[in-house]
Amino acid sequence: MELINTIGRRKAAVARVFVNEGKGQITVNKKELSEYFPLFQLQHIVKQPLTVLEVIDKYDIRANLDGGGTRGQAEALRLAIARALVEIDPECKKVLRANGFLTRDPRVVERKKPGRPGARRRFQFSKR
After folding, report:
1. What pLDDT is attached to residue 42?
2. How do residues 74-93 score in pLDDT, each as one tens digit?
3. Distance (Å, rounded) from C-alpha 82 to C-alpha 96?
4. Which CATH number goes with the domain that contains 74?
5. DSSP letters of 58-126?
């Protein structure tokens, strides 16, 4: 199997993932997964596509993450891993799609408007 390269995005976060056969080691920005994402919940989000397909110890994953916060980065990484698994084995697309791992969440922060303190918030009204 050759090196598989995919991209996942969420909010302002971008994840570039390189997958090849191995022992299940996940490296994010040259750090171990548990070191980069110390929260168990975020580690679980990243590993979801692998656990659903029961291939958690079959592939080595190397990822470059940029932008966004920790949650956005974890979800971007999950999408990239799911896309890579589909490239490796198109048969698993149905399972990943049913679990919602192949859907790109389009929600992003709304831009700030001129003359206002935020996107929709207005300055306090003063009658006098």
Report:
1. 95
2. 999 999 999 999 999 999 99
3. 7
4. 3.30.230.10
5. TEEEEEEEESS-HHHHHHHHHHHHHHHHHHH-GGGHHHHHHTT-S------PPPPPTTSSSSS--PPP-
State the residue for tokens 């207005």.
122
Residue 6 has pLDDT above 90, yes or no: yes
Give domain status of residue 20, yes or no: yes
pLDDT over threshold 80, residue 1: no
The single-letter DSSP state of residue 22 is S
Q: Model's pTM, two decimal places?
A: 0.91
Which strand ranges, in their side-by-side order, compose the sheet holding 26-28? 4-10, 13-21, 59-66, 26-28, 31-32
Asked, for residue 112, whether it belongs to a domain, the answer is: no
pLDDT confidence of residue 2: 77
